[in-house]
Amino acid sequence: MKRSVLLLAAFAMLFLSSCHEDVPQCFEEGPYTVTTLQKGIYDIEDSNSSNPAGVQEGGMNNCSNMYLVLGKKKALLIDLSNDIKWADNAAESLRKVFYDLAGKREKIITITHAHGDHTGMLHAFADDPEISFVLSRKDFGNDKRFPQERTTIIDGGYVFDLGGVKLDAIDVQGHTPGSMAFYVEGRNAVFTGDAVGSGSGVWIFSFDGFKQFEKGLANLISFLEEPANGVNLDDLTVYGAHAWQKGEKPKLGMQYLYDMQGVVDDINAAKAQWEPYNAGFPMLNANFKHGESVITWSTDSYARLCAEKGIEIGILE
Ligand SMILES: [Zn+2]
After folding, report:
1. Residue (of 98, 100, 94, 144) closest to 120 by Cα position
2. Domain hosting residue 103, numbered range
3. Mean pLDDT lowest for which of 39-43, 281-285, 304-308, 311-315?
4. What spacing in Å lies between the alpha carbon of 12 and ligand 1's midpoint?
């Protein structure tokens, strides 16, 4: 047992750590691994070669991915990772990465949704007068942790103009009421936080959460399909906030979102494929699947939804 755990750890070190020779333009800074995705767009993950993403000896690193987008005038950091306790230089390391890459640009932080694994390092920036925050009303409208004088509250449809680079804020509620995705115009890249999961399932925590998600997912897909938004659907990459969870899939794209729509449709038709799942919470006890996409939700909520539609599906166990 011990030996197999060690082998797994070694495997994780070799293959799950982001910086190896197959990944160009990648470096580690303290507990963070920084990878260039496109010119002026970076992935910053709270994992490194000593504590790689995913499973390893002594637990797991459910690291999350921040994304940094540079325009000519402004730099936008999307999300603030877990609150890192396993390295003592996390705050200074993240500040160094942001300041080094952003240079003299005005520095802005936005956050995809109000969960601790995406707001964890707020303490590294909250008191920095050079940083301003732009935040979703429904998740952060009354959040006193952010400096009110440097915070702008927004709704879906807001456009970040970084100087030659624009991002659209899109409401994708469901995982949380105020979850947002951010689409980089002309780059076929959308940063979705946990709004559609990262490949292993989007967690929907309540009965009403599913009804929100139905609207949020439809909103995201219709934004991407709108010809005026100029998205090349064949080339789109959906960047979730827990990239390691996509496993062997090379990337998530439009088909992933269409399969997610398939899960929603199957649930609404009371013919969802599902299997038991144990996330440690009773309200997340089943994975509902369609194609490559998964909604993690509860059998009680599913049965209740079916009953609302007049379809009796019996007790699910
Ligand atoms: Zn998360």
Report:
1. 94
2. 2-252
3. 311-315
4. 21
Q: How many other CB atoms sit within 10 Å of the CB of residue 14? A: 11
In a domain, 270, yes or no: no
Nearby residues of 253 by Cβ (< 8 Å), 6 or more positions away: 234, 235, 236, 237, 238
User: Which DSSP string do the residues of 36-79 spell out, in sequence order?
Assistant: EEETTEEEEES-BTTB-SEEETTEEE---EEEEEE-SSEEEEE-
- Could you read off the pLDDT of 184-197 as tens digits, one per residue? 999 999 999 999 99
Asked, for residue 11, whether it belongs to a domain, the answer is yes
CA of 146 to the centre of ligand 1 (A): 19
23: pLDDT strictly greater than 70: no
| Token reading at 129 | 């007068």
Residue 202 CA to ligand 1 center (angstroms) comes to 10
Total structural domains within the chain: 1
CB atoms within 10 A of CB 296: 21
Kindly state whether residue 304 falls inside one of the protein's structural domains.
no
Band of pLDDT at residue 7, cut at 50, 70 and 90:
very low
This prediction's pTM? 0.92
Give the Å distance between the CA of 313 and the centre of ligand 1: 32
Q: What is the CATH number of the domain that holds 243?
A: 3.60.15.10
The answer to whether residue 147 sits within a structural domain is yes
